[in-house]
């Protein structure tokens, strides 16, 4: 193994055997020995990669592509059918929430158990336990049994232990998706600190913004194969292109089978609902956005039940960035937005209703939004 590498994967294959109608008793085995059906599911195929010491690498891909399996192989929780996975340095992992915790012991007691599994001595744990408790923000709950913890509290404690064991390699699965926004941001700040201290970090995440911000490299796993490895921005762009192609193919099949339910969303940015507008200002600028996975979706903007025809489609990159993965290949960032200007001089004083709808060609409503404003 190259001394500059923290992890080396060579010609690695991983298969799982799926046994259908498996007999669970001796009687079943004797009576139904011919009915058992076994399938071999190849999860990873010929994976080759090096992760250098000090690198922060993201494994990206759709669900079921093999990312988490690859991470488990790196931790040696499971082993490859062919090829090798080698690591160089002390390793800690966060793969499953609360793994290694005993439900009936307190958080404090579990810190000692968990940290000792990672190789710390009693003296070393004593020196760090207050830092672990402080980072977890569990306060008085640290002396409560962990079976009383919420999933977010579990994650806080598990992450706090893992980052305080001075491991050279840190492997993290999507566990950081658990917890409130404050603690997630705190975790990412800590990961950035660890990155700057030359720790090797491998993270599995669906948050592409995190990949761009945190990682030096992105490795795209597609249907069990290593499709692309390199600069995060380029790899993510290619990944999203493939996701868009796959989504369109899946949608075509579902539509043909009558199983696809179209989705859409509309929003009104201005005016705000229940706003009071002065008629003497002359005009009122209205804007918002509309998205849909229906190729022929129609936008309809109305005031007091009458359609407004003078509506302009505009660019909304902020909405595109937020929805590009969920609506992969379905959105045009240049036409997501809409705007129109109302002539207030033609409106009566009082309350008016402003509606925006996203419709199927036959008039069925996919999504709608309405607000009321008062003209004085």
List the helices and strands and how they pair.
Layout: E1 5-20, H1 26-31, E2 37-52, E3 56-60, H2 67-75, E4 82-87, E5 91-94, H3 107-117, H4 122-136, H5 151-162, E6 169-172, H6 181-196, E7 200-204, H7 208-214, E8 217-222, E9 225-230, H8 232-256, E10 264-270, E11 276-277, E12 283-292, E13 298-303, E14 306-307, E15 312-314, H9 317-323, E16 337-343, E17 350-359, E18 365-375
Parallel strand pairs: 3-7, 3-8, 5-6, 6-7, 11-18
Antiparallel strand pairs: 1-2, 1-4, 8-9, 10-12, 12-16, 13-14, 13-17, 15-16, 17-18
Helix pairs in contact: 3-4, 3-5, 4-5
Q: What would your notes on this structure say?
A:
Helix content is 29%, strand content 34%. It is built from nine helices and 18 strands. Strand 17 and strand 18 (365-375) form a beta hairpin. Helix 3 packs across helix 5 (151-162) and helix 4 (122-136) crosses helix 5 (151-162). The protein is globular, with a radius of gyration of 27 Å.
Concise summary:
The chain has 376 residues and is an alpha/beta fold. The chain has helices spanning 26-31, 67-75, 107-117, 122-136, 151-162, 181-196, 208-214, 232-256, 317-323, and strands at 5-20, 37-52, 56-60, 82-87, 91-94, 169-172, 200-204, 217-222, 225-230, 264-270, 276-277, 283-292, 298-303, 306-307, 312-314, 337-343, 350-359, 365-375.
The number of helical elements comes to: 9
Helix-strand category: alpha/beta
Radius of gyration: 27 Å
Largest sheet strand order = 5-6-7-3-8-9
Number of strands: 18
Distance between the ends: 77 Å
> What summary fits the major beta sheet?
6 strands, mixed
Shape: globular
Uncertain regions: pLDDT < 50 for 5+ in a row? none
Q: Which series of helices and strands comes N to C?
A: EHEEHEEHHHEHEHEEHEEEEEEHEEE
Helix % is 25-40%
Beta-strand portion reads 25-35%
Mean pLDDT: 88
